[in-house]
Design goal:
GO terms for molecular function: adenosine deaminase activity; metal ion binding. Keywords: Hydrolase, Metal-binding, Nucleotide metabolism, Zinc. Belongs to the metallo-dependent hydrolases superfamily. Adenosine and AMP deaminases family. Pfam families: A_deaminase. The chain has 371 residues and is of the alpha/beta class. 50% of the residues lie in helices and 12% in strands. It has 19 helices and 8 strands. It has an 8-stranded parallel β-sheet. α8 links the parallel β2 and β3. α4 crosses α6. The radius of gyration is 19 Å and the shape is globular. Bound molecules: inosinic acid (IMP) and zinc ion (ZN). The site of inosinic acid has 17 residues, from β3.
Protein backbone atom coordinates (compact mmCIF):
# COMPACT_ATOMS: atom_id res chain seq x y z
CA UNK A 1 0.00 0.00 0.00
CA UNK A 2 1.98 3.00 -1.19
CA UNK A 3 1.09 6.57 -0.41
CA UNK A 4 1.81 9.82 -2.21
CA UNK A 5 4.90 11.55 -0.87
CA UNK A 6 5.40 15.20 -1.70
CA UNK A 7 6.83 18.39 -0.23
CA UNK A 8 9.71 18.47 2.29
CA UNK A 9 9.85 14.69 2.85
CA UNK A 10 9.99 13.99 -0.90
CA UNK A 11 12.75 16.56 -1.40
CA UNK A 12 14.78 15.03 1.43
CA UNK A 13 14.22 11.49 0.16
CA UNK A 14 15.27 12.44 -3.38
CA UNK A 15 18.53 13.91 -2.08
CA UNK A 16 19.66 10.67 -0.40
CA UNK A 17 22.09 8.20 -1.95
CA UNK A 18 20.76 4.64 -2.50
CA UNK A 19 22.79 3.40 0.47
CA UNK A 20 21.44 6.16 2.74
CA UNK A 21 17.90 5.25 1.70
CA UNK A 22 18.58 1.57 2.37
CA UNK A 23 19.97 2.50 5.79
CA UNK A 24 16.73 4.31 6.73
CA UNK A 25 14.52 1.58 5.33
CA UNK A 26 16.34 -1.13 7.27
CA UNK A 27 16.45 0.80 10.55
CA UNK A 28 13.94 -0.61 13.09
CA UNK A 29 11.56 2.33 13.64
CA UNK A 30 8.53 2.91 15.84
CA UNK A 31 5.61 5.08 14.68
CA UNK A 32 3.91 6.30 17.84
CA UNK A 33 1.94 9.35 16.65
CA UNK A 34 -0.34 8.49 13.73
CA UNK A 35 -4.02 9.52 13.68
CA UNK A 36 -6.11 6.89 11.91
CA UNK A 37 -8.42 9.21 9.97
CA UNK A 38 -5.45 11.35 8.97
CA UNK A 39 -3.47 8.37 7.67
CA UNK A 40 -5.84 6.70 5.19
CA UNK A 41 -4.19 6.14 1.77
CA UNK A 42 -5.80 8.49 -0.78
CA UNK A 43 -6.60 5.55 -3.11
CA UNK A 44 -8.72 3.90 -0.41
CA UNK A 45 -10.46 7.18 0.40
CA UNK A 46 -11.28 7.61 -3.28
CA UNK A 47 -12.78 4.11 -3.43
CA UNK A 48 -14.92 4.86 -0.40
CA UNK A 49 -15.96 8.20 -1.93
CA UNK A 50 -17.05 6.52 -5.17
CA UNK A 51 -19.18 4.01 -3.27
CA UNK A 52 -20.62 6.86 -1.22
CA UNK A 53 -21.61 8.70 -4.40
CA UNK A 54 -23.45 5.60 -5.69
CA UNK A 55 -25.28 5.02 -2.45
CA UNK A 56 -26.00 8.57 -1.43
CA UNK A 57 -29.25 10.24 -2.46
CA UNK A 58 -27.83 13.59 -1.36
CA UNK A 59 -25.98 15.13 -4.32
CA UNK A 60 -24.87 18.03 -2.19
CA UNK A 61 -23.13 15.88 0.40
CA UNK A 62 -21.41 13.86 -2.31
CA UNK A 63 -20.17 17.07 -3.90
CA UNK A 64 -18.79 18.30 -0.61
CA UNK A 65 -17.00 15.00 -0.13
CA UNK A 66 -15.63 15.02 -3.66
CA UNK A 67 -14.32 18.52 -3.07
CA UNK A 68 -12.64 17.43 0.19
CA UNK A 69 -11.02 14.39 -1.46
CA UNK A 70 -9.83 16.47 -4.43
CA UNK A 71 -8.14 18.86 -2.02
CA UNK A 72 -6.35 16.00 -0.30
CA UNK A 73 -5.36 14.44 -3.64
CA UNK A 74 -3.88 17.64 -5.01
CA UNK A 75 -2.06 18.56 -1.81
CA UNK A 76 -3.38 20.96 0.77
CA UNK A 77 -1.88 24.35 1.43
CA UNK A 78 -2.54 25.44 4.99
CA UNK A 79 -2.28 29.06 6.00
CA UNK A 80 -2.47 28.09 9.64
CA UNK A 81 -3.28 25.10 11.80
CA UNK A 82 -7.06 25.68 11.92
CA UNK A 83 -7.30 25.13 8.15
CA UNK A 84 -6.11 21.63 8.87
CA UNK A 85 -9.10 20.64 11.02
CA UNK A 86 -11.53 21.60 8.23
CA UNK A 87 -10.21 18.66 6.20
CA UNK A 88 -11.74 16.02 8.46
CA UNK A 89 -15.55 16.27 7.87
CA UNK A 90 -15.19 14.80 4.35
CA UNK A 91 -13.05 11.95 5.66
CA UNK A 92 -15.40 11.31 8.58
CA UNK A 93 -18.40 11.00 6.24
CA UNK A 94 -16.60 8.05 4.62
CA UNK A 95 -15.59 6.22 7.81
CA UNK A 96 -18.89 6.48 9.64
CA UNK A 97 -19.94 2.82 9.55
CA UNK A 98 -18.07 -0.20 10.98
CA UNK A 99 -17.39 -1.77 7.60
CA UNK A 100 -15.80 1.33 6.04
CA UNK A 101 -13.92 2.07 9.25
CA UNK A 102 -12.47 -1.44 9.19
CA UNK A 103 -11.45 -1.04 5.54
CA UNK A 104 -9.76 2.26 6.29
CA UNK A 105 -8.02 0.81 9.36
CA UNK A 106 -6.80 -2.21 7.43
CA UNK A 107 -5.33 0.05 4.75
CA UNK A 108 -3.59 2.23 7.35
CA UNK A 109 -2.08 -0.81 9.07
CA UNK A 110 -0.91 -2.21 5.73
CA UNK A 111 0.59 1.15 4.80
CA UNK A 112 2.74 1.18 7.93
CA UNK A 113 3.45 -2.49 8.56
CA UNK A 114 3.28 -4.51 5.34
CA UNK A 115 5.13 -4.76 2.04
CA UNK A 116 8.71 -5.44 1.09
CA UNK A 117 10.10 -2.47 3.04
CA UNK A 118 7.65 -1.77 5.88
CA UNK A 119 7.60 1.83 7.08
CA UNK A 120 8.02 0.74 10.67
CA UNK A 121 8.67 -2.22 12.93
CA UNK A 122 5.99 -1.17 15.42
CA UNK A 123 2.94 1.12 15.26
CA UNK A 124 0.84 2.67 18.01
CA UNK A 125 -2.14 3.88 16.01
CA UNK A 126 -4.52 6.37 17.60
CA UNK A 127 -8.13 7.33 16.95
CA UNK A 128 -10.94 9.32 18.55
CA UNK A 129 -14.09 7.29 19.38
CA UNK A 130 -16.89 8.71 17.25
CA UNK A 131 -20.61 8.17 17.64
CA UNK A 132 -22.46 7.98 14.31
CA UNK A 133 -25.96 6.83 13.29
CA UNK A 134 -24.39 3.45 12.51
CA UNK A 135 -22.17 2.81 15.55
CA UNK A 136 -21.65 3.90 19.10
CA UNK A 137 -18.24 4.82 20.51
CA UNK A 138 -17.51 1.38 21.87
CA UNK A 139 -18.39 -0.21 18.51
CA UNK A 140 -16.12 2.36 16.84
CA UNK A 141 -13.13 1.31 18.96
CA UNK A 142 -14.02 -2.38 18.62
CA UNK A 143 -14.10 -2.12 14.81
CA UNK A 144 -10.56 -0.69 14.82
CA UNK A 145 -9.34 -3.29 17.32
CA UNK A 146 -10.69 -6.09 15.13
CA UNK A 147 -8.18 -4.99 12.49
CA UNK A 148 -5.33 -4.13 14.89
CA UNK A 149 -5.60 -7.57 16.49
CA UNK A 150 -5.00 -9.34 13.20
CA UNK A 151 -1.36 -8.45 13.88
CA UNK A 152 0.66 -9.58 16.91
CA UNK A 153 1.03 -7.16 19.87
CA UNK A 154 4.72 -6.79 19.06
CA UNK A 155 3.65 -5.06 15.80
CA UNK A 156 0.77 -2.77 16.67
CA UNK A 157 -1.60 -1.59 19.40
CA UNK A 158 -4.21 1.14 19.82
CA UNK A 159 -4.27 4.46 21.64
CA UNK A 160 -7.72 5.95 22.32
CA UNK A 161 -7.75 9.70 21.59
CA UNK A 162 -9.76 12.21 23.59
CA UNK A 163 -10.75 15.37 21.73
CA UNK A 164 -10.24 18.70 23.48
CA UNK A 165 -13.86 19.60 22.67
CA UNK A 166 -15.36 16.57 24.45
CA UNK A 167 -17.65 17.19 27.40
CA UNK A 168 -16.91 15.61 30.78
CA UNK A 169 -19.49 12.87 30.09
CA UNK A 170 -17.95 11.92 26.77
CA UNK A 171 -14.44 11.98 28.23
CA UNK A 172 -15.63 9.60 30.96
CA UNK A 173 -17.29 7.33 28.41
CA UNK A 174 -14.18 7.16 26.20
CA UNK A 175 -11.84 6.44 29.12
CA UNK A 176 -14.25 3.77 30.41
CA UNK A 177 -14.32 2.16 26.97
CA UNK A 178 -10.51 2.11 26.89
CA UNK A 179 -10.20 0.72 30.43
CA UNK A 180 -12.97 -1.84 29.88
CA UNK A 181 -11.49 -3.14 26.64
CA UNK A 182 -8.01 -3.34 28.16
CA UNK A 183 -9.44 -5.30 31.11
CA UNK A 184 -10.94 -7.75 28.57
CA UNK A 185 -7.46 -8.31 27.14
CA UNK A 186 -8.01 -6.09 24.10
CA UNK A 187 -5.06 -4.19 22.72
CA UNK A 188 -5.65 -0.65 23.99
CA UNK A 189 -2.35 0.61 25.42
CA UNK A 190 -2.85 4.33 25.95
CA UNK A 191 -4.88 7.53 25.97
CA UNK A 192 -4.14 10.62 23.84
CA UNK A 193 -5.42 14.18 23.96
CA UNK A 194 -5.80 15.83 20.56
CA UNK A 195 -8.06 18.09 18.49
CA UNK A 196 -8.21 21.83 17.89
CA UNK A 197 -5.33 23.07 20.09
CA UNK A 198 -7.18 26.22 21.09
CA UNK A 199 -10.42 24.51 22.18
CA UNK A 200 -11.58 23.18 25.51
CA UNK A 201 -10.92 23.49 29.21
CA UNK A 202 -8.05 21.25 30.26
CA UNK A 203 -9.06 21.29 33.95
CA UNK A 204 -11.73 18.64 33.32
CA UNK A 205 -9.14 16.12 32.19
CA UNK A 206 -7.41 15.34 35.46
CA UNK A 207 -9.82 12.76 36.92
CA UNK A 208 -10.12 10.94 33.59
CA UNK A 209 -6.38 10.74 33.01
CA UNK A 210 -5.81 9.55 36.59
CA UNK A 211 -8.28 6.72 36.09
CA UNK A 212 -6.65 5.76 32.81
CA UNK A 213 -3.21 5.75 34.41
CA UNK A 214 -4.41 3.67 37.39
CA UNK A 215 -5.72 1.11 34.88
CA UNK A 216 -2.24 0.79 33.36
CA UNK A 217 -2.77 2.89 30.25
CA UNK A 218 0.02 5.14 28.96
CA UNK A 219 -0.73 8.85 28.56
CA UNK A 220 0.29 11.08 25.67
CA UNK A 221 -0.93 14.66 25.27
CA UNK A 222 -0.76 17.08 22.34
CA UNK A 223 0.72 20.06 24.13
CA UNK A 224 1.89 23.62 23.36
CA UNK A 225 1.17 23.02 19.69
CA UNK A 226 0.59 26.70 18.84
CA UNK A 227 1.71 30.06 20.25
CA UNK A 228 -1.90 30.53 21.44
CA UNK A 229 -1.50 27.71 23.97
CA UNK A 230 -0.86 29.48 27.27
CA UNK A 231 2.00 28.71 29.62
CA UNK A 232 -0.58 28.05 32.37
CA UNK A 233 -2.34 25.43 30.24
CA UNK A 234 0.96 23.76 29.40
CA UNK A 235 1.99 23.55 33.07
CA UNK A 236 -1.47 22.18 33.93
CA UNK A 237 -1.18 19.44 31.29
CA UNK A 238 2.35 18.58 32.47
CA UNK A 239 1.02 18.23 36.04
CA UNK A 240 -0.98 15.22 34.80
CA UNK A 241 2.45 13.51 34.37
CA UNK A 242 2.07 12.30 30.78
CA UNK A 243 4.55 9.68 29.53
CA UNK A 244 4.83 11.28 26.09
CA UNK A 245 4.04 14.66 24.53
CA UNK A 246 2.80 15.45 21.02
CA UNK A 247 4.66 18.37 19.38
CA UNK A 248 5.61 20.39 22.53
CA UNK A 249 6.61 23.20 20.20
CA UNK A 250 6.09 26.25 22.40
CA UNK A 251 7.45 25.35 25.84
CA UNK A 252 8.80 28.06 28.13
CA UNK A 253 11.82 27.46 30.37
CA UNK A 254 9.74 26.21 33.29
CA UNK A 255 7.93 23.69 31.09
CA UNK A 256 11.19 22.61 29.45
CA UNK A 257 12.78 21.89 32.80
CA UNK A 258 9.80 19.71 33.87
CA UNK A 259 9.90 17.82 30.56
CA UNK A 260 13.65 17.24 30.83
CA UNK A 261 13.49 16.28 34.49
CA UNK A 262 10.64 13.77 34.01
CA UNK A 263 12.16 12.51 30.73
CA UNK A 264 8.81 12.82 28.93
CA UNK A 265 9.36 11.57 25.38
CA UNK A 266 8.56 14.13 22.68
CA UNK A 267 6.70 12.90 19.58
CA UNK A 268 8.28 14.94 16.77
CA UNK A 269 6.32 15.43 13.54
CA UNK A 270 8.58 17.51 11.27
CA UNK A 271 6.47 17.79 8.09
CA UNK A 272 3.29 18.36 10.08
CA UNK A 273 4.86 21.29 11.91
CA UNK A 274 6.27 22.79 8.70
CA UNK A 275 3.00 22.50 6.74
CA UNK A 276 0.85 23.77 9.62
CA UNK A 277 3.35 26.64 9.88
CA UNK A 278 3.90 26.23 13.61
CA UNK A 279 7.63 25.94 12.83
CA UNK A 280 9.20 28.17 10.18
CA UNK A 281 12.04 25.89 9.03
CA UNK A 282 13.87 22.70 9.91
CA UNK A 283 16.67 24.84 11.19
CA UNK A 284 14.35 26.50 13.71
CA UNK A 285 12.70 23.22 14.78
CA UNK A 286 12.63 22.38 18.48
CA UNK A 287 13.99 18.89 17.69
CA UNK A 288 17.44 20.52 17.84
CA UNK A 289 16.93 21.45 21.48
CA UNK A 290 16.00 17.89 22.44
CA UNK A 291 18.88 16.41 20.44
CA UNK A 292 21.33 18.76 22.15
CA UNK A 293 19.98 17.65 25.53
CA UNK A 294 20.01 13.95 24.57
CA UNK A 295 16.34 13.92 25.53
CA UNK A 296 14.05 11.04 24.42
CA UNK A 297 12.21 11.76 21.16
CA UNK A 298 10.36 9.69 18.62
CA UNK A 299 9.98 10.63 14.94
CA UNK A 300 6.39 10.35 13.70
CA UNK A 301 4.17 11.27 10.74
CA UNK A 302 1.03 12.64 12.51
CA UNK A 303 -1.22 12.49 9.39
CA UNK A 304 0.31 10.95 6.26
CA UNK A 305 -2.76 11.78 4.14
CA UNK A 306 -2.88 15.60 4.26
CA UNK A 307 0.85 15.99 4.90
CA UNK A 308 1.76 13.58 2.08
CA UNK A 309 4.61 12.04 4.01
CA UNK A 310 5.74 8.65 5.29
CA UNK A 311 7.84 7.51 8.22
CA UNK A 312 10.79 6.83 5.90
CA UNK A 313 10.29 10.37 4.55
CA UNK A 314 10.42 11.81 8.07
CA UNK A 315 13.68 9.93 8.73
CA UNK A 316 15.01 11.27 5.43
CA UNK A 317 14.49 14.74 6.89
CA UNK A 318 16.89 13.78 9.70
CA UNK A 319 19.60 12.41 7.44
CA UNK A 320 19.47 14.72 4.41
CA UNK A 321 22.04 17.52 4.32
CA UNK A 322 20.88 21.04 5.21
CA UNK A 323 18.76 22.83 4.01
CA UNK A 324 16.70 19.81 2.84
CA UNK A 325 17.27 17.99 6.13
CA UNK A 326 18.87 18.29 9.54
CA UNK A 327 22.12 16.69 8.37
CA UNK A 328 22.41 14.16 11.21
CA UNK A 329 24.96 11.36 10.90
CA UNK A 330 23.78 7.78 10.45
CA UNK A 331 24.84 7.02 14.04
CA UNK A 332 22.73 9.92 15.29
CA UNK A 333 19.72 8.79 13.23
CA UNK A 334 20.15 5.26 14.58
CA UNK A 335 20.17 6.60 18.13
CA UNK A 336 16.96 8.56 17.44
CA UNK A 337 15.28 5.41 16.09
CA UNK A 338 16.36 3.47 19.20
CA UNK A 339 14.85 6.16 21.43
CA UNK A 340 11.55 5.72 19.59
CA UNK A 341 11.58 1.97 20.05
CA UNK A 342 12.25 2.54 23.77
CA UNK A 343 9.27 4.91 24.14
CA UNK A 344 6.41 2.61 23.16
CA UNK A 345 3.61 2.06 25.64
CA UNK A 346 3.83 -1.60 24.74
CA UNK A 347 7.44 -1.86 25.99
CA UNK A 348 6.94 0.38 29.04
CA UNK A 349 3.62 -0.81 30.33
CA UNK A 350 3.15 -4.34 29.04
CA UNK A 351 5.35 -7.40 28.95
CA UNK A 352 7.05 -7.55 25.53
CA UNK A 353 5.45 -9.82 22.98
CA UNK A 354 2.74 -10.87 25.41
CA UNK A 355 -0.33 -12.29 23.74
CA UNK A 356 -3.09 -11.81 26.26
CA UNK A 357 -6.14 -14.01 25.89
CA UNK A 358 -6.74 -16.94 23.63
CA UNK A 359 -9.20 -15.04 21.38
CA UNK A 360 -6.40 -12.67 20.49
CA UNK A 361 -3.95 -15.50 19.91
CA UNK A 362 -6.42 -17.04 17.46
CA UNK A 363 -6.70 -13.81 15.48
CA UNK A 364 -2.92 -13.54 15.24
CA UNK A 365 -2.76 -17.10 13.90
CA UNK A 366 -5.41 -16.22 11.32
CA UNK A 367 -3.31 -13.31 10.07
CA UNK A 368 -0.20 -15.50 9.95
CA UNK A 369 -2.09 -17.91 7.72
CA UNK A 370 -3.02 -15.03 5.46
CA UNK A 371 -6.71 -15.08 6.54
P1 LIG B 1 -9.03 10.31 14.27
O1 LIG B 1 -8.82 10.53 15.74
O2 LIG B 1 -8.69 8.91 13.82
O3 LIG B 1 -10.43 10.69 13.85
O4 LIG B 1 -7.97 11.24 13.49
C1 LIG B 1 -8.23 12.56 13.09
C2 LIG B 1 -8.32 13.50 14.26
O5 LIG B 1 -7.06 13.56 14.92
C3 LIG B 1 -8.60 14.96 13.88
O6 LIG B 1 -9.97 15.22 13.76
C4 LIG B 1 -8.00 15.73 15.05
O7 LIG B 1 -8.89 15.78 16.13
C5 LIG B 1 -6.85 14.85 15.48
N1 LIG B 1 -5.55 15.36 14.96
C6 LIG B 1 -4.88 14.97 13.88
N2 LIG B 1 -3.72 15.65 13.76
C7 LIG B 1 -3.67 16.50 14.81
C8 LIG B 1 -2.72 17.46 15.26
O8 LIG B 1 -1.65 17.69 14.68
N3 LIG B 1 -3.06 18.17 16.38
C9 LIG B 1 -4.20 17.93 17.07
N4 LIG B 1 -5.08 17.02 16.70
C10 LIG B 1 -4.84 16.31 15.58
ZN1 LIG C 1 -1.23 14.74 16.17
Amino acid sequence: MSSTISGPAAAALNSLTPSQLKFIQMLPKAELHAHLNGSIPISVLQELAQEFAHLSDSGLTSDAIEEGIAKLRNGVVLDEIHDFFNLFPAIYALTSNPSNLRRATRAVLEQFLDGENPQCAYLELRSTPRETPEMNRRQYVQAILDEVERYPPSKTNLIVSLDRKMTGDVLRECVEIAIGLKAEGKRVVGIDLCGDPTAGDMGVLEEHLSRARAAGLGITLHIAETPANTAAETIQLLSYTPDRLGHATFLNDEAKSIVLDKKMCIEICLTSNLLCKTVSSLDAHHIRYYLQNDHPIVICTDDTLPFRTSLVGEYALLLAASPLGLGLTQDEVKRVAEMGIGATFQSRLNPPDAVRGTGQARKVETKARGG
